[in-house]
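User: Can you recover a sequence for this backbone? Please restate the input before giving your answer.

Assistant: Of course. Working from this structure:
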């Protein structure tokens, strides 16, 4: 299968899941501004017209988009990895957390704060309105190792999003000690440590390319 990704973007969650599952995949880096696939210079929009990562092409040639859907596909494709959840309330809880991370944290909180073109007033409004979502998460994680009763694709996604606090100084993890402890603990997990290290190196290379082109 092929995973189209950009370094340290939300697509890193799928990389973590694939590493966790011990799955073979081709990792195809997409340059966000130009939508170019760096591996071969092709136009990424020919694969995903919206031009957003992650995008996954399965071994059967099916193209999947949207982080939550791709993560659930990986969990279902590799059931022995334990990344998914059993049918019933546990699977519904997994859906719940994937939705919460994607809407309330990823799009609702972090994307506006990370947007370099967003006015400071808009960022201040988002922080005032939406930081309570981290309060909720901090309270939930008290005494818990994972979002479910085991490591799942929801944890892969959450760690990926929390990792963005490195680039969002107004969101200081020390204010949410349970979230911070969760993040620091899971960063030591081999699949996550490997993904972060590899994508950080790719991110530095991306910055160097931009500097050279400026």
């Amino acid at each position: 299968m092929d995973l189209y990704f950009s370094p340290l973007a939300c697509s890193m969650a799928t990389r973590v899941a694939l590493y966790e599952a011990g799955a073979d995949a081709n990792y195809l880096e997409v340059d966000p501004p130009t939508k170019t696939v760096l591996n071969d210079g092709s136009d990424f929009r020919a694969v995903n017209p919206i031009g957003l990562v992650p995008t996954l092409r399965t071994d059967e040639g099916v193209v999947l988009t949207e982080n939550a859907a791709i993560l659930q596909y990986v969990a279902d494709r590799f059931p022995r990895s334990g990344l998914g959840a059993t049918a019933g309330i546990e699977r519904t809880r997994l859906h719940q957390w994937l939705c919460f991370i994607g809407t309330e944290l990823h799009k609702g909180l972090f994307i506006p704060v990370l947007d370099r073109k967003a006015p400071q007033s808009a960022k201040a409004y988002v922080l005032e309105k939406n930081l309570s979502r981290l309060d909720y998460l901090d309270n939930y994680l008290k005494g818990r190792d994972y979002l479910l009763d085991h490591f799942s694709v929801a944890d892969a996604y959450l760690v990926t999003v929390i990792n963005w606090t490195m680039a969002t100084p107004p969101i200081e993890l020390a204010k949410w000690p349970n979230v911070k402890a969760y993040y620091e603990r899971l960063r030591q997990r081999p699949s996550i440590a490997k993904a972060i290290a590899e994508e950080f190196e790719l991110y530095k290379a991306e910055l160097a390319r931009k500097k050279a082109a400026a």
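That completes the design. The beta strands are 2-5, 26-31, 36-37, 42-43, 55-57, 63-65.
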